[in-house]
Amino acid sequence: MRTDLHFMSITELSELLRSRKVSSREVTRAQLARIAALDGALGSYAVVTEEEAMSAACVADSEIAAGQYRVDISCAGEVVKSHYATVRAGQTYVAAIK
Prior knowledge:
Helix content: 40-55%
Structural class: mainly alpha
Strand content: under 5%
Radius of gyration: 14 Å
Order of helices and strands: HHH
Distance between the termini: 29 Å
Number of strands: 0
Number of helices: 3
Largest sheet: none
Number of domains: 1
Low-confidence stretches: 77-85
């Protein structure tokens, strides 16, 4: 797995996706791996919805393959910090600060 993806800007990732040098799934896996490696010590995420992230990445890859590229947001992994309540994820209003 490429380890440089999480250091790239959205613009850089966008170009890699547009040229199909990387997939949305690859970018999302890299982000999830980075979270898994660091978040135990950092405690940055209350909830990480890996399955939903990978599902959204698959949809993005299908759209890109069909020519429906969403400018610079197709590469933005669906790994979203949980700052608000969500329907499918556990609702966490107060998380412990490490």
